[in-house]
Design goal:
single chain; alpha/beta; Spore Coat Polysaccharide Biosynthesis Protein SpsA, Chain A; 2 domains; eight-stranded mixed β-sheet; three-stranded mixed β-sheet; 17% strand; binds beta-D-glucopyranose
Amino acid sequence: MLQKLFKLLAFYFFLCMLCLLVFLYSKNGSLQISEPPDDEQKKEQYFDKVAENFWRTEAPGVRLGSTAAEVLQPCPETTPDLVGPLHVEFETNRTLDWVREQVGSVLQLGGRYKPPDCVSKQKVAIIIPFRYRDEHLNHWLYYLHPILMRQQVDYSIYVINQYGHGVFNKAKLMNAGYAEALKEYDYDCFVFSDVDMVPLDDRNLYRCFDSPRHLAVGVDKFNFTLPYKNIFGGVIALSKEQFLKINGFSNTYWGWGGEDDDISNRVRIRIKSISRPDSLIGRYKMIHHDRDLHNDVNPHNPYKLHETIKTFKRDGLNSLNYTVKDIKRDKLFTFISVDVHVPSGLNLK
Ligand code: BGC
C-alpha cells in the first residue's frame, strides 16, 4: 500500500516538473507565441500593435506572423554575411528598371529595408544629395542595397534632389535630407554619401560610431590615400546626437568645394575626434564624370572656412529653410525634390 502511494507521488512530482519545464521554455525560448484575443475590438487593437511594432521596432523586435508575433534577437556584433573586398565596375549599362529587378524584391517602398531575422541596433537614414546624376544613382543603388542588407542595417535611402537649375548647394540638401528623414522614422544615425562613391569592401560599416565617422578613406581618384589629414567628405556617418551638437552642415556653401571642410571644422571644434575604418577596408571607387552644370568651383568658399568657428552656431540646422516641391517613392529610394532658395543674383566668380 505504502509502495503504491509512493509510486503515485513520484508520478505526480514528475508531471509537475514537466509542466514547470514547458512553462520556463515558453518564457525564455526563442519563440514566444501570444494568441490574439477572441473579442473583435481587442483583436483589432492587438493586430494594430503588432503592425506598429513592425514599423517601429525596439529590441527585442517583433516579426509579423499570420496569427502570432515572433520575438527577434538583436543582430550580432559581427554580421555573418560579409564577403570583404568587392569587384565594382561602372561600364555596364544599368537602367533603373533593371536594378529594381535585381535588388528590389526584398525592399519596401521608399528604399526601405530591415533585416528579417534580427533587430539592428541603429536606424540609419542614408542621404544622397543629388541633381542630374541618374546614371550614377543606378550604379550606386545596384551596389549599395546588397551591401547594406549583408550588413544587416535597418535603413532607408533618401535621394535629395535640388529643384530647378540654380547654383547647387550640396550641404543644404543634406541638412534638408536629415530633417525630412526624421519626419518619417526615428532614425538615430545618418550616413551622408556622394552619389558617385561605391565602397570596395563590405566590411566598411554604414552605421554610426562613438565619434563621427569618415568612411571614404581611400578613394581611387586619390590613389587610395587621404589627400589631406582633415578631409571629411565623400561618405560620412554621424549619429543624431553628433549631428545636432555641430548644428548640422552650413547652409551657405554655394557651388563646388568647402562644405565638407566646414563640417570637418565643426566636428573638430565641438566633438574633437573622428573615426575611420582602416585604409584597406575604407577603399572606394568613384564614378568619373565631368563637372556638373551649375556647380562651378566657388572661389569664395575656402575663405569662409576661417569663419566656421564664429558662424557655426547660427548657420546650420537652426537656420535651415527650404521648400519641399515633390516626394516620390520608388522601390529603391525615396526621392525628395527640394527648393533650397538660391539667392537671386548669386555670382560665383
Ligand atoms: C575641397 C573639398 C573637396 C576636396 C577634395 C578641397 O579643396 O574644399 O570640398 O572635397 O578638396 O576634392
